[in-house]
């Protein structure tokens, strides 16, 4: 809630998709370069060489034919080879920007003719002025022969292949990432309760082993926490009897016992009684089942019993599933701690977050996690004279962990501390 500037790490699916996308692009680039180098360029070179040989042969044949036979030759070239032959010069513009095929063709024609061959452009044809027999023979051919389609075909094939590999890998990764995402979600929501939802033991062998080990670990942790809570509750309950006997023995002491000694015994017994009470409250709260309650009236009732007003108006709210006893204990401990160590205590309810604010000395950032440890005190602002068992915030933290709530400490707007609980 408070780490808005923190960037969450990418999920396994996102990382794998990015890796596959980058790999696919690399495959396309390498394949296209190899295809162009070893397939397209040789084909284009061979095509330009064949085209140049055909044009030179056409010019040579046309020159050698008698004038009365040239018309039939020109007709056959137009019908079968899409070539147009003119013996008379034509006023056309020479092509300045040539593609790779025309550059190769010009070079081959120049080599075969022994002199420079100009390539000219008209509306629908490309013309080559081939010098032959002391004159220039103008041969026109379709510009469609310039387009070397193997390059585009190769790019399409490689692109579709890489896309197919990417989609297939994506499907496989999703099948792997989905169980892992479920495992991460269950692991994050697991709080040691006995009624946890086990992971489905299905899929690849590694995921089955992971799910089985997680379920076994979760069951063992649940049993351990349950046994610990039961043991803690039993010990705390059983200590009530000797504590009562000690109180009775203290009452039966002779009247000549020093009052100061009696007062010390009384204080020790009260401290023991408070520790036992805290242990019992924690044991009951950790094992409590959630119920549907309206949070605003509930919080208002709790803080009113401690003579603290709730700033947020109690206009009613939708019922929330929460353990009421544990939540009540968390609120009481936080408000009591604020009353003991601060001034001007306020409680504010915002959505599903309860803020307990005070104007006390505050808690340094380096100690804000340690204050939730049992019996930890800040020497500069805390002492045993303020009362308490030293377990108040520790119980708050443990109950929040048991029920999946979040608790943290920030600076209050006007100074002091802002201890908030998100449920």
Describe the protein in words.
The chain is built from 10 helices and 11 strands. Strand 3 (about 120) and strand 4 (about 125-130) form a beta hairpin. The chain has 3 domains: about 10-150, Beta-Lactamase (2-Layer Sandwich); about 190-285, Signal transduction histidine kinase, dimerisation/phosphotransfer (DHp) domain (Helix Hairpins), CATH 1.10.287; about 290-420, Heat Shock Protein 90 (2-Layer Sandwich), CATH 3.30.565. By secondary structure, it is an alpha+beta fold. The relative contact order is 0.07. It has helices spanning about 10-65, 65-80, 100-115, 150-190, 205-240, 240-250, 260-285, 295-305, 325-340, 390-405; strands spanning about 85, 95, 120, 125-130, 135-140, 290-295, 320, 345-350, 355-360, 405-410, 415-420. Helix 7 (about 260-285) packs parallel to helix 10 (about 390-405). The chain is rod-shaped.
């Amino acid at each position: 809630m408070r780490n808005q500037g923190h960037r969450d790490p990418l999920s396994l699916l996102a990382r794998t998709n990015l890796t596959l996308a980058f790999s696919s692009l690399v495959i396309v680039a390498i394949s296209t370069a190899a295809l162009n180098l070893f397939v397209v360029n040789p084909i284009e070179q061979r095509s330009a060489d064949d085209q140049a040989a055909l044009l030179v042969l056409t010019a040579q044949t046309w020159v050698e034919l008698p004038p009365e036979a040239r018309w039939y030759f020109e007709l056959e070239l137009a019908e079968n080879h899409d070539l147009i032959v003119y013996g008379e010069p034509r006023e056309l513009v020479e092509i300045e920007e040539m593609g790779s095929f025309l550059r190769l063709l010009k070079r081959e024609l120049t080599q075969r003719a022994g002199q420079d061959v100009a390539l000219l452009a008209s509306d629908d044809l490309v013309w080559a002025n081939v010098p032959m027999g002391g004159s220039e023979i103008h041969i026109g051919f379709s510009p469609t022969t310039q387009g070397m389609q193997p390059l585009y075909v190769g790019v399409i094939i490689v692109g579709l292949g890489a896309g197919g590999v990417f989609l297939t890998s994506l499907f496989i990764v999703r099948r792997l990432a989905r169980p892992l995402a479920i495992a991460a979600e269950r692991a994050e929501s697991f709080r040691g309760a006995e009624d946890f939802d086990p992971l489905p033991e299905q899929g690849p062998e590694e995921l089955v082993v992971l799910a089985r080990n997680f379920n076994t670990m979760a069951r063992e942790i649940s049993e351990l926490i349950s046994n610990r809570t039961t043991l803690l509750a039993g010990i705390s309950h059983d200590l009530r009897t000797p504590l009562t006997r000690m109180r009775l023995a203290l009452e039966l002491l002779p009247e000549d016992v020093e009052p100061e000694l009696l007062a010390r015994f009384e204080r020790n017994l009260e401290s023991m009684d408070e520790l036992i009470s805290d242990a019992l409250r924690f044991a009951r709260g950790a094992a409590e089942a959630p119920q549907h309650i309206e949070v605003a009236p509930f919080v208002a009732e709790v803080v009113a019993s401690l003579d603290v007003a709730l700033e947020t108006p109690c206009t009613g709210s939708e019922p929330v599933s929460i353990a009421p006893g544990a939540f009540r204990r968390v609120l009481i401990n936080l408000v009591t701690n604020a009353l003991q160590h601060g001034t001007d205590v306020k409680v504010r309810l915002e959505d599903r977050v309860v803020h307990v604010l005070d104007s006390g000395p505050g808690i340094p950032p380096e100690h804000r996690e340690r204050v939730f440890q049992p019996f930890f005190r800040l020497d500069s602002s805390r002492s045993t004279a303020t009362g308490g068992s030293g377990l108040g915030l520790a119980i708050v933290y443990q109950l929040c962990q048991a029920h999946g709530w979040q608790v943290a400490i920030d600076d209050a707007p006007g100074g002091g501390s802002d201890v908030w609980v998100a449920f």
